Amino acid sequence: MMTNLFSVFDPSSGVGMSFNWVSFGVGFFMFPMNKWGLTSRSGSWLTFILGKLYSEVKPIFSIKGSVTSLMFMAMFLFIIMNNMMGLIPYIFTATSHLAVTLSLALPMWLGYFSYGWVSNMKWMLAHLMPQGTPIVLMPFMVIIESVSSLIRPATLAVRLMANMIAGHLLLTLVSNAVYIFNFNSVLSVVTLQILLVVLEVAVAAIQAYVFVVLSVLYSSEI
């Protein structure tokens, strides 16, 4: 039972040859090439979403970090595309693996963290000591703030991975209930599945938004 339940997260599963990781970027090929260069409804819709996201995170950007806004917009598009692709039946969810989510969070954090300590060490040291901290608590606050800074990429990666795994496991468990209940309960199970899919669509969009906003927030401290 547990093997079948978690087999949807197994990247080596497949018939003959594994095509699971194709979903990692196949979503971008769903748009015709002319959609990226010409004005269209899908392009306008995508521009509208990215514009709204930029207006949300623009106040958080630092003066130096605002030039990297395109990188964060691309990250949002990549994450939400992979999250949505994972909701299609028989499509592998790449963002449900820690290797993928950590690969997104760790290089971003490491780049900003290293740049901050090299270019402005005094500012980074000031972040370890919140203003107004009592003298007795200063050593503990330095340790707490240091640990908090070091675990940031792990929290970003685990949050995204855990939400993707939890939603898919819930859908799998509810779908298995069809074999347990009688025919009269099938309608209730199907209705619950539809509601869960709608919830998963919302979670996929929200998690992409949270990932990008927190990344921008961390980078603004440099």
Automatic annotation (TrEMBL):
The keyword Nucleus does not apply. Coiled coil: none annotated. Keywords: ATP synthesis, CF(0), Hydrogen ion transport, Ion transport, Membrane, Mitochondrion, Transmembrane, Transmembrane helix, Transport. Its main location: membrane. One of its GO terms (molecular function) is proton-transporting ATP synthase activity, rotational mechanism. The chain crosses the membrane at residues 12-31, 87-112, 124-144, 156-181, 193-218. It is found in: Membrane; Mitochondrion inner membrane. It comes from the Eukaryota. It is a multi-pass membrane protein. The keyword Nucleotide-binding does not apply. CDD domains: ATP-synt_Fo_a_6. SUPFAM superfamilies: F1F0 ATP synthase subunit A (SSF81336). GO terms for cellular component: mitochondrial inner membrane; proton-transporting ATP synthase complex. Belongs to the ATPase A chain family. This is ATP synthase subunit a. It comes from Trachelipus rathkii. The gene is atp6.
